[in-house]
């Protein structure tokens, strides 16, 4: 299904008041996941995230203020690579109704430029192994698969 390109969206740092909309976006990404977080839990975590030196959650919204996407970006210090920081991207989601419209491209461009502006040597993220549409999206933006991603379910 081909979708019409949207106008530019505004991408800004999220505020605590944005959490209901952000949680709704997450629900669209992980439908059927029974590990949903409550608004109260999200508010506590949002405060903790705000205490990290350079960890931010961003919200993409239309001119009307309607939220259409979100992502988290951590710029972390590194002792390796001569102290050059690295960027870690997490929780990227565009509203189901707006996927394929260019919003994800705008969000990824914003995240990439933010990482570049902070002097990051590398910019990395992981994607679920079965998310082939997302993999194609990232590859179309110039990202390449590199190495392996491992996890341990604790």
Query: Using DSSP, what is the number of strands?
Result: 5
Name of the level-1 CATH class = Alpha Beta
Write the CATH architecture name: 3-Layer(aba) Sandwich
Q: Report the end-to-end length measured between terminal Cα atoms.
A: 39 Å
What number of structural domains do the residues give? 1
Query: Mean pLDDT, as a whole number?
Result: 87
Q: Remind me, CATH topology?
A: Aminopeptidase
Q: Portion of residues in helices? A: 25-40%
Strand proportion: 15-25%
Structural class: alpha+beta
CATH superfamily: Gcn5-related N-acetyltransferase (GNAT)
Produce the secondary structure layout.
Layout lengths: L9 E4 L5 H11 L9 H13 L3 E7 L5 E10 L9 E9 L8 H15 L4 E3 L7 H9 L14
Parallel strand pairs: 4-5
Antiparallel strand pairs: 1-2, 2-3, 3-4
Structure characterization notes:
- It is a single chain.
- 31% of the residues lie in helices and 21% in strands.
- With 154 residues, it is α+β, with helices and mostly antiparallel strands.
- The longest helix is centred in the C-terminal third of the chain and has 15 residues, at 103-117.
- The protein is globular, with a radius of gyration of 16 Å.
């Amino acid at each position: 299904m081909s979708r019409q390109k949207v106008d530019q969206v505004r991408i800004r740092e999220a505020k605590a008041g944005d959490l209901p909309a952000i949680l709704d976006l997450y629900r669209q990404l992980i439908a059927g996941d029974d590990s949903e977080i409550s608004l109260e839990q999200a508010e506590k975590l949002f405060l903790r995230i705000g205490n990290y030196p350079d960890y931010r959650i961003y919200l993409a919204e239309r001119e009307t203020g309607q939220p259409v996407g979100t992502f988290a970006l951590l710029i972390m210090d590194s002792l390796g690579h001569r102290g050059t920081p690295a960027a870690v991207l997490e929780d990227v989601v565009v509203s189901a109704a707006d996927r394929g419209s260019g919003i994800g491209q705008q969000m990824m461009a914003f995240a990439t430029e933010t990482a570049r502006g902070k002097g990051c040597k590398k910019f990395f993220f992981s994607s679920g192994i079965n998310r082939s549409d997302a993999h194609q999206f990232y590859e179309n933006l110039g990202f390449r698969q590199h190495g392996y991603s491992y996890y341990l379910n604790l």
